## 1
Amino acid sequence: MSLQIYDHRSRSKRPFVPVEPGKVGLYVCGLTVQDVPHLGHMFAFVACDMIRRYLEYRGFEVTHVQNFTDIDDKIIARAQQENVSAETVAQRNIDAFHTAADALRILPAHHYPRVTEHVPDIVAFVERLIESGNAYAAEGDVYFRVRSWPGYGRLSGRDLDDMRSGVRVEVGDRKEDPLDFALWKRSDGDTPGWESPWGRGRPGWHIECSAMATRYLGNHFDLHGGGRDLLFPHHENELAQSCCATGEAFVNHWLHNGLLYLGKSKMSKSDGNFLALDTLLSRHPAAVLRFFLLNAHFRSQLDFSEDRLREAAAGYDRLRRGAQNLSNALAAGRNGGTRTVVPGLVSLPGAALAEAADHRRRRFFASMDDDFNSGAAVGELFGLIKDVNHYLAATDGRGLDVEALQAVFDLLGEADGILGIFPDGLAEFDAGPGDVPDEVGELARLRQVARDGRNWPEADELRGRIRDLGWDVEDTPSGPRLNPIVGT
Ligand SMILES: [Zn+2]
């Protein structure tokens, strides 16, 4: 089966066809950095990380872009409250994001554009919209003329006239139509701002994503992520601006993740209904949080509670114990600690295990191909562990079929490469070549970080340093493995 992704236009799944063969452009709406991120925010980033890893596994070259909204009325208000610059507030929270993203094993994006570094791009984008008649300046503000684009409302399934009846007309509004939204806002007094053809001002929120996404990924690209709450108005507006400015299609698939609910309402900073991530991380391993977020279809709503997290932790432990049992059995089989099957002789339970692994592999990938259903894919891993336990019980650890066990282990490694649920990959379960010195382990970890960031020169340099310490890094399907260099 080919990879199917939900498509908002047809309201159904359809086969994924990249805009450019072999490549994928992925833009993810990032944080407005007035505060530290909470788990609800990180859900979107973990989901898109899983999607990116899967596409890379399938051989696509993914370019992953995630913005930071580092200037915004809330950031300005926070800065005034603390009597510091908006930049100080933004940088502090960007740092907090990176710390959380590292803990949750989110691969670094290839670009993290910030609004304050792209104001000329944004101004140029707004100018194009004025030229095309889709936007107008009004006393230092610039608005998008919603009625000028017939496609408006289609993405989120809204009717323009229904919307209009719900819109409040603000006193002193400079809009032609209450549905119009700001592309550029006038900055008065001490409010941060940039010079523009319309006077001193700052970008509206929606325009930045159109300007930065197309700047890094081209006018028309494949995937756009963000929480379901961004569908309207943010993504509807992004789509309208982009199509009007470029005259091209904008995004092929929107990856809206479901919302994270805490109690009866969604986790939201503005409502004060959220759990700070550092508090959560001090109580639960990051790997459990990541597992919790991926153990469902990313588009479905997630209900967060301590009970649900405990369930996730129990499930995660079951997987780890299973992986450890498997690794131990494999080591015992390899080392001849127990009698292994003579090659060429078919062991019946071993053949059954190999067949079961094959079946699980097909179902794991079918789930991932089904609009990235990581929850169903995780279900197959639980099934796989159960198959192994049955096998080990049936053989009582005798006559182990190393080939069949290795096939299961490799599948687990491939799955982990996609889901990123084991912090050290399957090396964590390695019952192999004795203790790796801390220094070597740390260098190997840094090398993996460098590789994940495609920093090949640094990765090579770290490999050299590891080698100087007498170890060799082997990149296996189950992650990097350290082997002592023999004879040095
Ligand atoms: Zn956005």
## 2
Amino acid sequence: MIKCPQCFSGLPSQQKAWACTNDSCVQDFRDDAASNFAGFDLPARPMYADTEQQFTQRRKEGKAQGKWPPAVPPCPVCAERMVDICQVCHFALPTGWGDGDVTCIVMSGARASGKSLYIAMGIDKLERLLLTHAKSQLSLSPELAEVFRINYQAPLDARGVLQSTPKAESQGAYQRQPLIFDLGLIKKRKQYLVVRDVAGEDMEDLPTSRLHFSFFGRADAVLFLFDPLAVPDVRANLAGIIPLPPDVGHDPIPVIANVLTLVREGAGGQSPPIGVVVSKFDALEEFRDLEGKPQWSELMSHRGAAFARDPSERELVYDTADGDLLSAEVRSLVLKLGGAGIVAQLENRADRVQHQFFAVSVLGHAPRGNMLDGRGIAPFRAVDPLKWALSQTGAI
Ligand SMILES: Nc1nc2c(ncn2[C@@H]2O[C@H](COP(=O)(O)OP(=O)(O)OP(=O)(O)O)[C@@H](O)[C@H]2O)c(=O)[nH]1
Ligand SMILES: [Mg+2]
Ligand SMILES: [Zn+2]
Ligand SMILES: [Zn+2]
């Protein structure tokens, strides 16, 4: 189904809306729907909406011609062509939106859980898979390519460390713009992937009016990243067993509760599935070299364990058998580490949400100070959660 890239609402083909994007046509009052869904004030603009039913009626009366949908109407003020918008949140749709299928995902997690870095690496891996296995070139509009390059790719390429994603309400909150990736043709269908990155800071305390986060409930998949060493119980459990890095992310437990609230609130019926991703998996590699503590060293060195191998870059299709095995292993690893609080949030509730566990490492090694480790980047299973999300809509 075609969805709006900002609010993730379905865009029924029997309804259309248009707005003028000309700066001179900005009106001096607030567009309430647009502002509430964006999370900041937006002025009203000339707008026009139509339905197939009304159009057919007008045609019967001789007031309209041709087939539905009608041609894009001119602005009643400046006479320039208007643009297609979402009826719900008034977001201006990219040109040609509707000529393919779309998978809408959210990246959530506490501060410094690795979301932004993950997006940069996950997309890089997906781009390679698409080229090799579907002969398809991933692309972004020139404007979004610039946003993506500056805020995601450049810090990863420079092997430096990312800046925290700014709060949604702050100036320069680049993540308010959805990242729209054109995946080209997969299985002869045009596919888009929309990623909405959310600042961890925004997920710590939910604002009371939060229509601008309601897209969580309408996503095709919500990814929740967490740094295992940021869970206080895990840290306490592992103190003295492996060297704990001093700078870890923030506690994910309160954040997952808020993410679940957003997922339930925005969903009309069925909530989207949640991909629970153990990030910075490289930190747990230390277990492999533990001497004299067999119960811990076996944890990671068990041969055949799904998290000891990485088949994710071999093909584009998502391997459910491998994914289910990985999920079961990661779940028990999280429990063994002391992360029962995370598992309980997902499983001990009446309104259980469908979820799947993943483990990823973007860097492969812990960064030293403000630079990445000299050994370079050795990502692990970075594309798995994206492949899983794309398989939810049948895109791959
Ligand atoms: N060891 C290790 N560290 C990582 C990895 N991925 C991210 N990090 C570290 O985690 C820090 C935070 O990563 P970001 O991607 O900025 O985190 P975020 O979740 O986007 O954070 P906010 O934008 O504040 O919500 C990075 O600066 C890295 O130091 C990884 O795979 N391994
Ligand atoms: Mg970020
Ligand atoms: Zn106009
Ligand atoms: Zn919308």
